[in-house]
């Protein structure tokens, strides 16, 4: 049986920012203890995971987070810290570098006014940029994450230009948690941006890692690329059935944005939950393009795209519905033919 691509642990819902796109908008409760976290990390190692991601909320609000990152590294796993960057001081950067961790910093805008509207906190942009510069100074592996919304679409080029030579991951925003459907771009706006990322920046889909500086985590981007010569080398860009997310209370999901829970690490081992996932009937249906409805079902690109199931669920109320943000069916008489 194959191993998960990685395991991500949502360490806490708590955060010192209030970003408009964030799914982690709840109140922290029933947090896993340090001892429980170490057991999960050991179980992740046993099922063959290579990378362990600490996410949130803001992981650095946990007092034990640096000790747990060191623990992951000492076991031979790759520790990855997903952070907003405002609490990452020089001493922590030094430790992360020493223990071969990498950092992913959310940077929704380089324009101060847009950034403040996005995070709800003044001066947070300055703190993030100082952190990024310190990471560069220490040679700490650091990438930038940009969640696409109506608010920051105009600033994405500027972020890419400012973050010269850094890896940039461009991510879909799913309307759940704090993220309102009102901040999701229209289909045509979204398609135009994705096409621009391809034409100007030569971005790659995130599951073709190692080939570029800029990556896009968005199934529809695969559909756009499939029109070109990439067709044969593309595979569907969706984490369902390939990763595990440990929530702050120990419950396990394979998609962070969906309510479907596979079990709880306080009651069942990761190995048993992973085996259940592989044979889970609903997960199998979600991974089968033939189960999709509407445009996604008849689309010739369904095997490389399939739309986002979480977006369909939160915007339409149906896991198998056509992706509501996709403009490709509307564009069949235009630049795209499917």
Can you offer a commentary on this structure?
With 338 residues, the protein is an alpha/beta fold. It has a domain at 7-185 and 238-287: Aldolase class I (TIM Barrel, Alpha-Beta Barrel), CATH 3.20.20. The protein has twelve helices and eleven strands. The chain has helices at 34-46, 65-74, 90-98, 112-119, 124-138, 156-162, 187-201, 219-226, 270-278, 281-286, 294-298, 309-316, and strands at residues 7-10, 51-55, 78-83, 102-106, 141-147, 167-171, 204-205, 214-217, 244-246, 251-253, 263-264. It has an eleven-stranded mixed sheet, with helices on one face. Strand 2 (51-55), helix 2 (65-74) and strand 3 (78-83) form a beta-alpha-beta unit. Helix 7 packs across helix 8. The longest helix is centred in the middle third of the chain and has 15 residues, at 124-138. It is globular, with a radius of gyration of 19 Å. Residues 330-338 have low confidence and may be disordered.
How is the topology of this model organized?
Blueprint: E1 7-10, H1 34-46, E2 51-55, H2 65-74, E3 78-83, H3 90-98, E4 102-106, H4 112-119, H5 124-138, E5 141-147, H6 156-162, E6 167-171, H7 187-201, E7 204-205, E8 214-217, H8 219-226, E9 244-246, E10 251-253, E11 263-264, H9 270-278, H10 281-286, H11 294-298, H12 309-316
Parallel strand pairs: 1-2, 1-9, 2-3, 3-4, 4-5, 5-6, 6-8, 7-8
Antiparallel strand pairs: 9-10, 10-11
Helix pairs in contact: 3-5, 7-8
Q: What's the CATH class of the domain at 7-185 and 238-287, please?
A: Alpha Beta
Q: Enumerate the strands of the largest sheet in spatial order, edge to edge or round the barrel.
A: 7-8-6-5-4-3-2-1-9-10-11
- Derived from helix and strand composition plus strand pairing, the structural class reads alpha/beta
**Distance from first to last alpha carbon:** 35 Å
* Unreliable sequence segments: 330-338
**Major sheet description:** 11 strands, mixed
* Mean pLDDT reading: 92
* Helix and strand pattern: EHEHEHEHHEHEHEEHEEEHHHH
Q: Count the beta strands.
A: 11
What form results from the Cα inertia axes? globular
CATH architecture of the domain at 7-185 and 238-287: Alpha-Beta Barrel
Helix percentage range: 25-40%
Radius of gyration, rounded?
Answer: 19 Å
For CATH, the homologous superfamily of the domain at 7-185 and 238-287 is named as: Aldolase class I
């Amino acid at each position: 049986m194959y191993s998960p691509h990685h395991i991500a642990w949502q360490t806490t819902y708590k955060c010192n920012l209030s970003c408009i796109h964030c799914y982690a908008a709840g109140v922290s409760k029933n947090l896993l203890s340090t001892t429980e976290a170490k057991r999960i990390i050991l179980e992740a190692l046993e099922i063959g995971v290579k990378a362990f991601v600490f996410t949130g909320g803001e992981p650095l609000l946990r007092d034990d987070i640096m000790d747990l990152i060191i623990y992951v590294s000492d076991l031979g796993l790759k520790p990855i810290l997903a952070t907003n960057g405002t609490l990452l001081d020089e001493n922590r950067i030094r430790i992360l570098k020493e223990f071969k961790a990498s950092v992913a910093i959310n940077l929704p805008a380089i324009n101060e006014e847009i950034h403040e509207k996005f995070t709800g906190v003044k001066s947070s942009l300055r703190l993030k940029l100082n952190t990024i510069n310190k990471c560069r100074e220490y040679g700490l592996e650091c990438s930038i994450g940009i969640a696409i919304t109506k608010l920051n679409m105009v600033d994405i080029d500027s972020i890419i230009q400012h973050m010269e030579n850094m890896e940039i991951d461009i991510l879909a925003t799913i309307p759940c948690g704090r993220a309102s459907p009102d901040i999701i771009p229209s289909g045509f706006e979204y398609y135009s941006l994705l096409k621009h990322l391809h034409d100007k920046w030569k971005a790659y889909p995130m599951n073709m890692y190692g080939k570029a500086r800029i990556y896009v985590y968005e199934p529809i981007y695969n559909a756009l690329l499939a029109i070109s010569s990439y067709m044969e080398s593309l595979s569907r860009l969706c984490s369902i059935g390939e990763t595990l997310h440990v929530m702050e209370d120990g419950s396990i999901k394979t998609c962070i944005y969906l309510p479907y829970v596979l079990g709880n690490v306080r009651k069942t081992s990761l190995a048993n939950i992973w085996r259940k996932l592989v044979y889970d009937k609903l997960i199998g249906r979600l991974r089968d393009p033939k189960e999709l409805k509407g445009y996604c079902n008849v689309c010739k690109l369904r095997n490389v795209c399939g739309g986002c199931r979480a977006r369909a669920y939160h915007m339409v109320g149906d896991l198998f519905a056509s992706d509501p943000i996709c403009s490709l069916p509307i564009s069949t008489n235009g630049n795209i033919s499917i």
